[in-house]
Amino acid sequence: MLKAVLKKILNLIPTLLGVSLLAFLLIRLVPGDPVMLLLGERGADPQMYTEMKRNMGLDRPMYEQYFTFLGNIFQGDFGHSIVSKRAVLTEFFDRFPATLELGIMAMTFAITLGIPFGIIAAIKRNSFFDFTLMGAGLVGYSMPIFWWGLMLIIVFSVKLGWTPVSGRIDVLYEVDKVTGLLLIDSWWSEDGGFAAFKSALSHLILPALAMGTIPLAVVARMTRSSMLEVLGEDYIRTARAKGLPYARVVIVHALRNALVPIITILGLLFGSIITGAILTEMIFSWPGIGKWIVFSINARDYPVIQGGVMMIASLVILTNAIVDILYLWANPRMRH
Amino acid sequence: MKLWQILFPLCFILSLVSSSHASTFVYCSEGSPTAFNPQITTDGTSNNAAGHTIYNRLVEFKYGATEVVPGLAESWTVSPDGKTYTFKLRKGVKFGTTKYFTPTREFNADDVIFSIDRQRDTSHPYHSVNGGNYEFFKAMEVDTLISTLKKIDNYTVEFKLNKPESPFITNMAMSFMSILSKEYADQLLKENKKENIDNFPVGTGPFVFRSYEKDTLVRFEANPTYWQGTPKIDKLVFAITPDANVRYQKLKTGECHLIIEPAPADINAMKQDSKLKVMESAGLNVGYLAFNVKKKPFDNLDVRRAIYHALNRTSYINAIYMGNAILAKNPLPPTIWSYNDKTEDYPFNIEKAKALLAKAGHPNGFAAELWTLPVTRPYNPNGKKMGEMMQADLAKIGIKVTLVSYDWPTYLAKSRNGEHQMIQLGWTGDNGDPDNFLNVLLGCSGMKAGSNVAQWCQKDFNQKIVKAKSISNQEARTKLYKEAQEIFHDRAPWVPVAHAMIYRAMSAKVQGYKIDPLGGDIFREVYIE
Q1: Of A282, A322, A336, B524, which residue is the least packed, with the fewest Cβ within 10 Å?
Q2: Residues A162, B211: C-beta atoms closer than 8 Å
Q3: Domain range enclosing A306
Q4: A75 phi and psi, to 5 degrees?
């Protein structure tokens, strides 16, 4: 077991190196010069330009810049933002709780609805219900988040007036940052308490719906196919033949076994949560890492983009590695 | 159905709690401020979040106009040689009290000296704090203009300039000349927290900084001791909402009272909504096509006039600006004082263009390059498309145009070297002074600096603008600038294309708001009905 885990961890090194190279190169391929953007049009004095470029280390050869970036990462230094002058890691952890809160909410939405939908579709296979659910799932999966987010806003916020349009909490509440998760911090807010909590929760609904729709569709389809497979097994037939209630057979016997592949998928969905965050956060003005990365790309803030992408990619890779290791632990056949 | 059954009651309960307080004014802005000090920032977002809220300057722009009026200085005098400016400072002005600073004295000359010297003096303890890049101070050449700055007494300061320059007073009204508190700076110096000066601001302005939640909100409170009277709103919130569509939806639901830059496609719908109102004004900008008058055949006046007549500029306003711009006939936008309204625009006339071209010795036209703007700017949202339309227009009089473009830094660098024949460019004014357009873009000195891409150094034009720059009588300056615009029109070194409009959409209940021609958003007189 230990050997297999070590092998998994060693495998991470080339992946992370590849990510670092991509993060470094991609932003440099995008047209636009950070120095020019910082100086503005009127400040394009050649001397000032050269000086600034040198100060930012951008006049050195590309490979040298890359190795400096890599060397600093090994020392835990992801660089400093060109715009805010603050450490990239500090900036990242300032915003990560917002994305985490939204991600947890979106996943909760996807799991609590996706699994029951999948089960129902499986046991009522080929019924009207099955077709409707799976059809809706396909639509949900292929819907562009940007459009879907705006539709949700127009229907629920503008037409019906049920939820706020965007932001994390009503501007009336000033919440002191403790954990960074507003659903928790709002309870301690001086002017808030329960009302602030409700406001934070109401602001979470639409972005979580928008962000959780694709995972919901994936979980529902995955549950359905996994359940169908399990429901056809001999032991299910045996259980039914013994005269056990159908609900008990489905939930206790079938679902428990069908859940294994679903759990693996949940690990993979973490990646799609992050990519979904970029779009969702822009629409709902959600101050998480997605919005941060977009702002930084617009400002060609190289250190933030390469450092931020590196952090995000590492998180996704690590989560997948943990899921893999858990899988090894759960399934001894995979250890070899 | 299950989803609805779960969501309906939940949303209903939650919707009961979302209401906003009457005296809290929510402004939906588009980006995050980079710092809260206009001395070190250049972007409009940061300027709105600090320059117009927290700080004041010795002189200010009149609300909604480009004229200069007294600010923290009650009055000022200019010596007969135009080189000494003496400012009498206002008494009884208090700096705002914040969670991190309580002032013990009123504003005085020390604060003025501190604020200017921080930018001017490289050995100043605050000069290199937070990057030490005072871009506007350098770009407006204030660094080389001021020779000495002296405190005469607690309420009098004297600036000595190296040469007479009337736009100096306009520059003094720009945000980068904001006055910071020296007492606060001294406190930070003692606490070894110098960096805080630009992020936890203290000023004399209408609002006091309360907090900034990154990429989300900036909170301000009305300054109860503001020298022009406490603002009518108690709290001001900047809600950072990058997407224009979402800003519009928030305006409809009442989550924003006023939004910046509504999407052009939404403006008509906004105008028809009785709960909203839209304000518009020509921006302080100009988009143009410049001829390199040093290169053949553009040294020929008739060729330039022929092209002027051949371009159907009204069609560009509709296709490129979606109608959100006005046709330009002068290099100055109409919101600037001294704009020459009498200029008669060159009409779109193919026959006349052909005749002029024949007169210039090119009856069959010629081949030329036209450089198209590689970036999106309000003064030209789509350079390539405009280039294609110009190409089609000029083909009608026999001019075969090749469209050329480079990445932005290269484009600027090559145009400064005069490598182009015809080039699209534009300008957004800094301070509302005509000199900031005419001298920078068309003066002989601008040719050396590279900003006069037409390479046009016209003696009589230049004499007028140089003279206008050195005198301080505004009436006399206006006359000179109007005459200069006549010369420009006659000699046609550019084809001015458009002045992009500025739009602001707000709830119909918002009162007291005026569009700032300089592009800012100012809330000191705003209130909700």
Answers
A1: A336
A2: no
A3: 1-41+59-83+299-336
A4: -95, 10
Best CA proximity match to B256, nearest among B27, B513, B102: B27
Burial of A113 by CB count in 10 Å (0-12 exposed, 13-18 middle, 19+ buried)? middle
Asked whether the beta carbons of B495 and B328 are under 8 A apart, the reply is no
Q: Is the CATH number of domain B24-257+509-528 3.90.76.10?
A: yes
Q: Please check whether residue B62 touches A, CB under 8 A.
A: no
DSSP string computed for B90-123: PSS--PPPBTTB--SS---HHHHHHHHHHHH-TT
Q: Are residues A2 and A74 in the same domain?
A: yes
A163, burial (CB in 10 Å: exposed 0-12, middle 13-18, buried 19+): buried
For chain A positions 147-176, those within 8 Å of chain B (CB to CB) are 150, 153-154, 156-158, 160-168, 170-172, 174
Token couple for B76:
């000022």
Residues A135 and A221 occupy one common structural domain: yes
CB contact under 8 A, A198 and B14: yes
The answer, for B425 touching chain A at a CB cutoff of 8 Å, is no
Please state, in angstroms and rounded to a whole number, the distance separating the CA atoms of residues B401 and B371: 10
Could you tell me which chain B residue has the CA closest to the CA of A114? B3
Any bridge partners for residue B237, and if so which?
A: B26, B219
Q: Is residue A2 part of a domain?
A: yes
Say which CATH topology domain B285-501 has.
Answer: Dipeptide-binding Protein; domain 3 (3.10.105)
Contact B407 A31 (CB under 8 A): yes
Question: At residue A55, what is the residue type?
Answer: N
Residues 6+ apart with CB under 8 A from A235: A253
pLDDT in tens, A214-258: 999 999 999 999 999 888 888 888 888 888 888 888 888 888 888
Q: What is the CA radius of gyration of chain B?
A: 25
Instruction: Go through chain A and tell me how many residues it has.
Output: 336
> Is residue B76 within 8 Å of residue B85, measured between CB atoms?
yes
Minimal Cα distance from B220: which residue of A? A171
pLDDT in tens, B296-312: 999 999 999 999 999 99
Helix H or strand E encompassing A196:
helix A194-231
B172 touches B57 (CB < 8 A): yes
Report the alpha-carbon distance of residue B172 to residue B176 in Å, rounded: 8
Q: Nearest chain B residue to A109 by CA: give it.
A: B3
**Bridge partner residues of B156 (DSSP):** B88, B153
Q: Pick from A150, A158, A292: which is nearest to B252 by CB?
A: A158
Which residues, at least 6 apart from B248, have a Cβ–Cβ distance to it below 8 Å? Answer: B259, B262, B263, B266, B270, B505
Please report, in tens digits, the pLDDT of each residue of chain A (336 residues total): 778 788 888 888 898 899 889 888 888 887 667 777 666 655 456 677 777 788 777 888 888 888 888 888 888 888 888 877 788 999 899 899 999 999 999 999 999 999 999 999 998 888 998 999 889 888 988 888 889 999 999 999 989 989 999 889 888 888 888 888 988 888 877 766 888 899 999 999 999 999 999 999 999 999 999 999 888 888 888 888 888 888 888 888 888 888 877 877 877 787 778 778 888 998 898 989 998 998 888 777 888 988 888 888 888 888 888 877 877 776 666 665
Residue A292 located in a structural domain: no
Task: Please compute, for residue B163, the number of CA atoms within 13 A of its CA located in the half-sphere on the CB side.
Answer: 11
Q: What is the secondary structure of A20-49 as a DSSP string?
A: HHHHHHHHHHSS--HHHHHHTTTT--HHHH
Predicted TM-score (pTM) of this structure: 0.81
pLDDT confidence of residue B173: 94
Specify the residue for token string 């400072």.
B89
Q: Do B11 and A94 lie within an 8 Å CB cutoff?
A: no
- CB of B140 closer than 8 Å to CB of B171: yes
Give the integer Cα–Cα distance in Å for A278 and A290.
4
Alpha-carbon gap, residue A170 to B445, rounded angstroms? 53
Please tell me whether residues A19 and A148 are part of one structural domain.
no
